[in-house]
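tool_log.txt
---
The assistant was asked to compare two proteins side by side. It first ran the structure predictor on the initial sequence, then on the second. Raw inputs and outputs are pasted verbatim so the downstream comparison step can read them without reformatting.
(1)
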Amino acid sequence: MRRATHIFAIRIAGVLLTIAALPTPAFDLEGHRGTRGLMPENTLAAFNRAIAIGVTTLETDIAVTRDGVLVISHDPFLNPDVVRGPDGRWLAAKGPPIHALTLAELQRYDIGRLDPESKYAQQFPQQTAVDGQRFPTLAEVFALVRAAPQPVRLNLETKITPTSAGETVDATTFARLVVDAIRGAQMTSRATIQSFDWRTLVESKRLAPEIETACLTIETPNFDTVQSKSDKPSPWLAGLLLSKVGNSLPRLVKAAGCAIWSPFWRNASPALVAEAHALGLKVLPWTVNDPVDIAAQIEAGADGIITDYPDRARTVMGAKGIPLP
């Protein structure tokens, strides 16, 4: 009996040593639009700066030109706060949809600095201008990531909405274009497709089960993609209905086939994070910029964050004892 107990104790000790030797789960530090707080958003300059800071993932946005080229842009149209014309002047008003322009036409515009007179520019006083930046293609970003000195992933958002018919390709075509580009670049293990419009996510999983998807959500008085108080499916959620899954948003994310839930950070309570984890989901809140809020999300159990200031996040991560990328 004593010998059996001794053997059992040795085995338990071995298991504990094995567990102790396992690597700490990675915390995914995602640079929002590259690093919007520091460099012109969604530019090669921003992506290079984010890589230099040490992000694990570049978060960015996809649009489609008239000639079918996947390009990087948060807005599906030319934003006058961001875009200058060939004459060097900021656009006087909202410009045409990117889908109405060929790649050659689009790349005549400069996105290397914000209009200093805009309210938008006042949100990012630390942003450094880099004149001459053009709308990158997704192919250019793939090349940049391959050349990075450390492994970097991509989180690619399809910029489409339930009401954007005519401003871009349809959801099915959008998903196919992005899936084909990821596969063609042999980036299936290093790319995630995310969207508020879950139609592209459901279609992406149908086309490419091997590519990870992330379900974006927001629930605020001014913008609510979940619409939990409605008895009808939200148009943002690909026809999925909360009441069918016990009004559980994490369960709806799981039903959509997503591996990641990315809620607006104010909506990511510790209880919901725990519920998502119990379902096997990762939780990556967006867009968390204040160090106090970054720390709170870490304490709530988030698996990573999406931030305009990855430099701030690294400081908080270090203080929390999280291994830095």
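(2)
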Amino acid sequence: MSEEADPLQSLKHQIRRQAEANRLAQPNKDEASRIICEKFAALAEYVAAETVMCYVDMRSEVRTRLFLATAMGGSKRIVVPYCLDDRLGLFLLESMEELAVGTFGILEPKLELRAMAHKRVDPGRLDLVMVPGVAFDRRGARLGHGKGYYDKLLRHVRPDTPLVALAFECQLFPEIPTEPHDVFMDKVITEKAICPSALENESF
């Protein structure tokens, strides 16, 4: 069935286009990203975690590169994803110098480093996952780019591993349409809110 003939896919496409436009127009991305990443680092889940997966930002996403550089200077094992055929591999990142431009123009681990056994990380070892996305709602529903990379990965993390999305407030919608295979976030952090949470209306 084509996207045009499928109302659900058509709605997702509309939301995706609007969210991408909103995100592109987001002012003060550096400052908003700093606030969002500080909220992430202040979470009890982050403090308790030993192994944390973080994404490396691309295009107009919430910017994580400064956070990554800082986080690697702490006591946590920082893991980043990379495209591996139709799924995501996981790599133990110890320096930003280990990254190079890869699939879809994303900074990814250099090819020659991926085969090193001590660099490969199983999803079951993750204690916390930072998740990107195109659009979210306050329930934690997520809309990605439609390729399913994160849905596949998140099905293999431990059930007790918190999933925390980072987004600008302009990426939040009243309701994201979902399907049975979609994975919900435990928290969505924006520059203005942490939701769903009692802190939802609290400014950072």
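---
observation on (2): The chain has one domain: 3-195. Confidence is low (pLDDT under 50) at residues 198-204.
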